[in-house]
Amino acid sequence: MAQFMEHKEKLKMPPMRLTSYAFVMLFTILISASMNLHAQKNWTLEECIDYALEHNINVKMQKVGADRASNLHKQSKLNLLPSASAGLSHSYNFGKSLNEDTYEYVNQQFQYGGVRAESSLNLFDGRENINTIKMRRYEMLAQLEQIEEARYDVTMNVVTYYLMVLSATEQKEIREEQLANTRDKIQQIEEQIRVGNKAKGELLEIKAQEASEKALLTRAKNELSMAYVDLAQLMNLDSVENFRVKVPEELNVTKDQPIKTTSAVYQEAVKDFPSIQKAEYLLESSKKYLKVTKGAFFPELSMSGSISSYYTELAPTSYWKQLRDINVQAGIGLSLRIPLFNKFNKFTRVSNARLDVQDNQLRLQEQKQNLYKSIQKARNEAIAAFENYQANLESVESYKEAFKYAEERYNVGLVNIVQYRIAKNDLSVARSNAASAKYNYIFKLKILEFYMGKALKI
Asked: In Å, what is the CA distance from 374 to each residue of 103, 207, 263, 368, 387?
């Protein structure tokens, strides 16, 4: 008994160690639970878009370009500041050298040193610096719009693949429901065969139907899996495992309000659409560059100032006294540089700058035309998609009635199993087509909403 108690005491952990151990275990459990909750959460469309924008390489590259353009803009402002420089020199002379004090040549060894500081300020340069600042600013703004263009592309791609996942999910559910109904019918036929009301051949036919629907369900599951892979890769998710999107409880499609005209949508979109804004900024930048090239024909006026001092070992005065008092020199001056001839390079620059302005004017016009055509096409496709969806809904209702009628007649022996299968397959195809048409209409509508600057939600 004593040995048992001694062994038990050895197994006991100190209170502090037990508390630490319990804390580590609790922390590990909480972290694990948190990771599981994160992995199992269903992603909304907004969350998918935000994640994709945060991790998209192209968006990050465009941000780097914007930072570079911002640096150039800042530097163009800093170029207005005066330049300054300073220098020190020290030499050991021997042989025939000039004595700075007497301006006579001497033939002896001596040390010589000097200090100098100078500064210059551009007073006028034909407004080249001022127009360069404005040009760099428009280039920076254009690069910021380039980021928005990249974000636009990512957003629309996420919406596309997100809706593909929802569509594939609904297709799978339709196949599962069809297969479940067929299996119920198999049980009914087996029961009727046992009581002698049905022939065994009908069971074989309905089992063939089951095999066909199982194959369709397998294909639907694979398509859903691939849709998740495509969406996850677009978002740059590390893993597709446990990645699921939030399926809306009810996604009814109605045409509550008439779709706006192409002109109305265009007037809203053209105000701040990234490609249009970018083209406008590039046009303004090219106009400022034209002014920069014209400024090269003006004279340049600058002011400069300098102060220097030197020390020579030949002088009897001390080192510091020479530098500080005796040999100090200072000056200030103005200089004017007048351009006369440079092989017509300036004329060529101005001519090319004018062509750049014309090119950017045409690019802006082209962007506006493309935007109008895109909106026009999107609007027509949205209207056509809605009409197609409505037609498919009517088709589903018709095939529901036809299948219901065929099933009733089959149950009383007025139609055979083949006719029953045909009616069931027709209904399945109609439901599948309606689901595809619904998501196609939603996608077309989302494109129009995006042109109008609306937030993309489902």
From this structure: 82, 49, 12, 10, 20
Residue 79 near residue 127 (C-beta atoms within 8 A): no
The Cα 231–Cα 165 span in angstroms is 8
Angle of helix 417-451 versus helix 200-235 axis, rounded to 10: 20
In a domain, 166, yes or no: yes
| Partner residues linked to 92 by β-bridges | 111
Question: Hey, what amino acid is at 237?
Answer: L
Residue bearing tokens 């196949």:
175
Contact 301, 123 (CB under 8 A): yes
Residue 383 falls inside a structural domain: yes
- Residue 104 to residue 121: CA distance in whole angstroms: 36
Residue 340 sits at φ, ψ, to 5 deg, of: -115, -50
Which pLDDT score is estimated for 40?
58
Partners of 334 in the β-ladder: 303
For residue 418, tell me if it sits in a domain: yes
Q: What average pLDDT does this structure show over 297-319?
A: 88
pTM of structure: 0.79
**Helical segments of 79-107, H only:** none
Q: Is residue 204 assigned to a domain?
A: yes
Structural domain span for residue 159: 129-298+358-458
How far is it, in rounded angstroms, from Cα 240 to Cα 233? 8
Contact indicator for 120, 83 with CB cutoff of 8 Å: yes
Q: Is the dihedral of CA 58, 61, 67, 72 positive or negative?
A: negative
CA distance 392 to 311: 99
Helix, strand and coil content of the chain, in percent to the nearest 5, comes to 70, 15, 20
Evaluate whether 382 touches 448 at the Cβ level (below 8 Å): yes
C-alpha distances in Å from residue 229, one per residue of 39, 68, 107, 225: 15, 35, 87, 6
From residue 245, how far is each of 37, 222, 228, 235, 443 by CA, in Å? 14, 16, 9, 13, 17
Residue 268 CA to residue 425 CA, distance in Å, equals 46
Give how far the C-alpha of residue 67 lies from the chain's centroid of Cα atoms, to the nearest Å. Answer: 15
pLDDT tens for residues 252-305? 676 666 788 899 999 989 988 999 999 999 999 999 999 999 998 889 999 999
Show Cβ contacts of residue 142 under 8 Å, excluding neighbours closer than 6 positions: 69, 278, 281, 282, 285
DSSP state of 317: S
Q: Which residues contact residue 39 at a Cβ distance below 8 angstroms, ignoring those fewer than 6 apart?
A: 241, 242
pLDDT in tens, 402-412: 999 998 888 88
What CATH number should be reported for the domain holding residue 189?
A: 1.20.1600.10
**Overall number of domains in the chain:** 1
